[in-house]
């Protein structure tokens, strides 16, 4: 009703009143145009103005918000919107994140592999990638080419890759109850973590250490030729004769840097373990007592102690043997219950059946 009344009112007025109202409205529009530089029109406004502009004289169309040029612009915009497509980037699509992570992994784990070597390994794994793409991935990841990666090998990575050919030796001291210092000379096989406690002297000499080296090679027998390097510190007790004993068997001696305990980290870690689990919890009376304690602890360390680096197995455990759970677990006490070893025992009924001859069963 309000719309029909507003539209019908101008027909009841005089021509002069209508002309005056039109002039007022035009002036108001001119004032508003000076305030608004570019009005924002909705699609509904554009549709109404486009439909009504058709009935205006050509002279009045030039002064409206919607001109013929505006209508053509709107039409071209609608055409582009209808036929627009998602723009595709130039070149091939990027590699998947899983493939990029695999390339980075192969490069980090194999410092000597070049781009073509990594490409071949990826092809064997089902990924066909160009060597240039592998080079771009490594550059973005901050990984240098193969020669530079191989030259950046750390001491830790060297030890891990050469563990099965490495021996490490060091000295350890123990204070007796009579405030007398005794020394322990030991050698560790880094791959298996097996420890050889070679001697407990009260006074260290170069000749004594050299003789212990000969004893070690005799105990290793055929396995002595498997070791290529021996890591030791720069103690004065390691003489040229000591190095010559291992050099004669084909084992090169590698002295560590001065005051660089991490270079011989495996031996240093065993010293800490032996102190925490054994020597710091006992009162040692003399050489004989320490030798007995050390022999027992070394046997426990090699046969009855779990190691995190060996998947919670002892050095002498067979890696392919998995013990089944048993009903009875028995404890064996060592060094006056200072150390405990646990062994599984089958139930008495199963033990009885095992002892019964097959024919009788």
UniProtKB/TrEMBL annotation:
Q: Which organism is it from?
A: Streptomyces endocoffeicus
What is the protein name stated in its UniProt record? Transposase
Pfam families membership: rve_3
Q: Which InterPro entries match?
A: Integrase_cat-core, RNaseH-like_sf, RNaseH_sf
Domain Integrase catalytic: start-end pairs? 143-333
Q: Where are the transmembrane segments?
A: none
């Amino acid at each position: 009703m309000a719309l029909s009344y507003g539209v019908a009112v101008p027909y009841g007025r005089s021509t002069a009143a209508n002309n005056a109202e039109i002039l007022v409205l035009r002036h108001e529009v001119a004032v508003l145009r000076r305030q608004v530089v570019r009005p924002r029109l909705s699609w509904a406004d554009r549709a109404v103005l486009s439909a009504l502009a058709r009935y205006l004289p050509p002279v009045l169309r030039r002064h409206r918000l919607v001109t013929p040029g505006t209508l053509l612009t709107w039409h071209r915009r609608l055409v582009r919107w209808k036929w627009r497509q998602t723009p595709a980037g130039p070149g091939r699509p990027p590699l998947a994140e899983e493939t990029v992570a695999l390339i980075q992994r192969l490069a980090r784990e194999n410092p000597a592999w070049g781009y073509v070597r990594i490409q071949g390994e990826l092809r064997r794994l089902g990924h066909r990638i160009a060597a240039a793409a592998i080079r771009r991935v490594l550059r973005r990841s901050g990984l240098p080419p193969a020669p530079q990666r191989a030259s950046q090998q750390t001491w830790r990575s060297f030890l891990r890759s050469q563990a099965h050919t490495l021996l490490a030796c060091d000295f350890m001291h123990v204070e007796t109850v009579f405030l007398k210092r005794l020394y322990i000379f030991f050698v560790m096989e880094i791959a298996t973590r097996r420890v050889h406690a070679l001697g407990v002297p009260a006074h260290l000499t170069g000749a004594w250490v050299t003789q212990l080296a000969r004893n070690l090679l005799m105990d290793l027998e055929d396995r002595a030729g498997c070791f290529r390097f021996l890591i030791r510190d720069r103690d004065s007790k390691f003489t040229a004769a000591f190095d010559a004993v291992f050099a004669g068997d084909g084992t090169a001696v590698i002295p560590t840097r001065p005051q660089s305990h991490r270079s011989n980290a495996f031996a240093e870690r065993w010293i800490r373990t032996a102190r925490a689990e054994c020597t710091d919890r006992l009162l040692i009376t003399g050489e004989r007592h320490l030798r007995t304690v050390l022999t027992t602890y070394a046997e426990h360390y090699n046969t009855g102690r779990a190691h995190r680096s060996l998947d919670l197995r002892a050095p002498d455990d067979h890696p392919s043997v998995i013990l089944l759970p048993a009903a009875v677990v028995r404890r064996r006490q060592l060094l006056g219950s200072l150390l405990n070893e646990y062994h599984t025992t089958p139930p008495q009924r199963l033990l009885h059946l095992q002892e019964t001859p097959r024919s009788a069963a």
